Amino acid sequence: MDETGAGGPVMKVIGLHSAVLTAIVAIALALAGSADVSGRTAPRPRVGSKVEYCMDCHGPSGQGYHGYLIMPRLAGQTPEYFESQLRAFAERTRERALFINMSRVHGMSPDMRASLAAQFRGFNPSPFGGGPRHLVATGRQIFQEGAPEANVPACAACHGPDAQGEGPNARLAGQLFPYTVKELKNWTSERGSGGQAGIMAPIARALTEQQIVAIAAYLSYLK
Amino acid sequence: MRFMRLSIAIVALVASAVASPAGDSIRNCTWCHGTSAQGFGSAPRLAGQRPPYIENQLLSFFVHARDNPLSAQYMWAAAEGLNGETAHELAMYFSMLPPEPAMDGNKQLIDIGRLIYEEGSPESDLVACAACHGPNGEGVRQIPRLAGLSYSYLKRRLEEWGEGYHAGAEPPMPGIASKLYPQEIEALASFLSFVP
To answer: What's the pTM value of the predicted model, to 2 decimals?
Structure first.
């Protein structure tokens, strides 16, 4: 406060005037639905709420969740694989016989699929681990060298040396242990003959249960 | 003769449970939760509940993480004297009691409730309860059994999460419950109260 009072009342009036103007602009912007100064309105946050919807089942940052159903890790997934699976659920070529209506809960527009794929690509939470540790070394060997006696090629050849995935070949690093086991043991009954079945179905059939568990254990710890 | 031996065995089992170190605690619980732990008034049924869920809730009362009004008023004090071992024994004991469905919801809303339970509402970004809680509301691991819990208890929990109260351990429920419309809460709570 100016003790001399020389510029007192005039300064206060100008200050008040600016404050009122600022308030009017702020209220106008708020009423316009967060329009910026050029008048454009921000898009409705549909992708944001859809991401939350996915995470309600698939876990914070898409790390996966062990519910009654094992909801797989989505974080860091390749966009091409991510979108292809959403399409497969919607078109009922994947997991038709389940107590959840998978087609309905995963139904959305192609644009939304692409947006979600881009979002989850950017998440990188730590993996749960949880697979039997004593089988990790065996799992790593099969992943990197295959199982020649069973005519099984190295997983790394398609899924990448660190299981990061490539295009339509899924990222496997950090995938939930029980989920990987389930997919390899039930490839055909869950995914039919579409997608990569031509390559994956014979591999899944050729692998022994012990080998499947070992691979899944290795992947469950991979960052 | 075989029936007599069976009833003696059951009496011995129950007697040993009540006489064990957890026995006093069991009596304290049944004071509010009912002698057969089916629930009474606002205290929910404990019979047949998932053991890890009961343990987590007892811990959440102990550390005051679960903070809805009735929990704060009654359960914070009730859980104060419990150690981990007693909590575990209590959880195992109650989980083995056969649950009876409350059947106190609105019968007219059962079909709508079932639809929400099994499919959620993808248009409203609401997930299907069944994915985590199971096709028959039985729960799994630390995810609670919902089947047969009382309408008034389920309704209150779902409303309280929408009002900002915290869950014991699991992150998803408050966010999920916040998306429910009042009519959906009524339908879900009604449907679940009738599931055996």
So the answer is: 0.82
